[in-house]
Amino acid sequence: MRHWIPPAPLAAGLAYQLAAWLIVLAYAFVPSEGLALAWVHAVALGWLTTVALAVLLFVVSAFTDLPWRGENVARAAAAIVPLATALLVLAFAAGAVVALDLAAAVLLVAIGAYVAMAVRTLRQPAPARTEAAIARALAVALSMLALTALLGAMLAGAYGGGDARVLALAPSHALLGIGAWLTVLVSGVSVQTFRPMFGTRSRWPRAHVASGAGLLIGAVMAAVAAPWSAPMLRIGVALGALGTAIYAADALDIVRRATTPHPALRAFAGAAVAWLIVAAACAVAASWGITPLGRAAVVAALAGWLGGMVNAHLHHLGVRVVVTFLRGDDDETRPWEVLDPWLTWLALAAGQIAVAGAFAGTVWDVRPAFAIAGIAGVVAVLAMLANVLTVRRATLRERADGSV
Fold first, then answer.
1. Residue 404 has pLDDT above 50, yes or no
2. Rounded CA gap, 301 and 297, in Å?
3. Distances (CA, A) of 1 to 114, 127, 235
4. Are 378 and 404 in contact (CB under 8 A)?
5. What angle do CA 76, 118, 237 make, to 5 degrees?
6. Closest by CA position to 275, among listed 292, 297, 242
7. Alpha-carbon dihedral of residues 116, 117, 118, 121, nearest 10 degrees?
8. What sign has the CA pseudo-torsion 58, 355, 187, 348?
9. Which residues of 118-155 are buried (b: 16+ CB within 10 A; e: fewer)?
10. CA 277, 111, 147, 358: dihedral to nearest 10 degrees?
11. Do 80 and 106 form a contact (C-beta atoms < 8 A)?
């Protein structure tokens, strides 16, 4: 059966989240650049992009009213990405250059195929202006993913040989991947997903246009300037920070006015937005030469902001996927009716300790902070996995009781 959001990539995202915190725990005892790069890609590709591509299989069509073209290719590509990411992460951790090149090549082909099919779909005439605007925004974000993958393949090829000209593109790769791809996508999609999650919508409908423009233009400008122009880099980062401020104000206002009876979900989203603000502040500081805060910005953005927002969505959309997979797409069970609240709060609290520990360890180079982060992160993931089992049991029990 073809599900509206395939559950396997969501499960893979949780597996990569667990792997990422285990890598942090290993880093506490045997720190290395290879483990640091393995962590970044386990999070950015395995945890975040894997889940994003799965959700976009639904979003691309549902938010634009456009039928998928080449959906089978896109679904196959989305299945290949987490497999190739596993090879990439292992190659970074082990320093295996040949495996790294192979993984990067497979990822480039798979991501390129997915993006090609998605853009082909999004180029169709949309039924209305709103849907057309959403289609354009999704196409731009996905194009940034393809460009990020291309730079990643180039960097993988230069990793073993140490070609300085190519390796100088590493900051551009990070800025495009974290800013122009993941942050633009998540902030844009949340405009739509916040409505069912929180029962309300933005009071400033044009805020997402301004924030999206600032984030995208700022990230692209900073990525272009990073290898050669510090002043332009600072301008780009400042534009991105302005977009961040606009989005954060709007998102926090929506969360504050939420009407759904799910306080932990509001806390998940609020904490994620707070980490976005921290990441933006660190990025601004790093653009002015405070180097340690550059890496801290990556941690705050990937694990705190993007990981936190993905986990917030998993506690709503992810639950809906599990329930409808077991009871059919027409089921209307609300997530808070089947989730265990204690497990949800445990996942949130442990997750925040994990991000704070990884952030502190990166800023001050404190190994015990990484150990605390790794352990807390594992606890957070296990709490979420336990909650998945709770949802499954509750859903099957209701079906057995004839409450479908």
1. no
2. 6
3. 21, 28, 49
4. no
5. 115
6. 297
7. 120
8. positive
9. bbebbeeebeeeeebebbebbbbbbebbbbbbbbbbbb
10. 30
11. yes
Question: What distance in Å separates the CA atoms of residue 380 and residue 21, rounded to the nearest whole number?
Answer: 10
Structure tokens at 350: 């442990």
Please tell me whether residue 127 adopts helix, strand or coil conformation: coil
* Spatial CB neighbours of 117, under 8 Å, sequence gap ≥ 6: 68, 69, 70, 71, 73, 74, 77
Two tokens at 72?
Answer: 């089978």
Of the pLDDT bands very low, low, confident and very high (cuts 50, 70, 90), residue 399 is low
Cβ 273 vs Cβ 251: under 8 Å = yes
Residue bearing tokens 């292992």 = 90
Query: With 90 as the cut, is the pLDDT of residue 327 above it?
Result: no
Q: pLDDT at residue 403 above 60?
A: no
Q: Are 9 and 76 in contact (CB under 8 A)?
A: no
Q: Give the SS3 label for residue 32.
A: coil
Spell 216-253 as b/e; 16+ CB within 10 A means b.
bbbbbbbbbbbeeeeeebbbbbbbbbbbbebbbebbbe
pTM above threshold 0.85: yes
What's the pLDDT tens digit per position in 354-371? 999 999 999 999 999 999
Instruction: Provide the residue type at 230 as one letter.
Output: A
Evaluate the CA torsion angle 321, 67, 44, 354 in order and state its sign.
negative
Place of tokens 């609290």: 349
| Residue 280 identity (one-letter amino acid) | A
**Residue in the block written with tokens 């089921």:** 331
Q: How far is CA 80 from CA 106, 111, 224, 359, 397, in A?
A: 8, 9, 29, 31, 34
**For residue 3, is pLDDT > 80?**
no
* Backbone torsion region of residue 67, taken as left when φ is above 0, otherwise alpha when ψ lies between -120 and 50, otherwise beta: beta
* 312: nearest Cα among 287, 277, 274, 347: 347
Q: Which residues are within 8 A (CB) of 154 and not within 5 positions of it... i.e. 6 or more apart?
A: 166, 169
| Positive or negative: CA dihedral 285, 289, 293, 299 | positive
Residues 6+ apart with CB under 8 A from 165: none
Quick one: tokens of 266? 């509001």
260 contacts 197 by C-beta, under 8 angstroms: yes
Q: Are 305 and 263 in contact (CB under 8 A)?
A: no
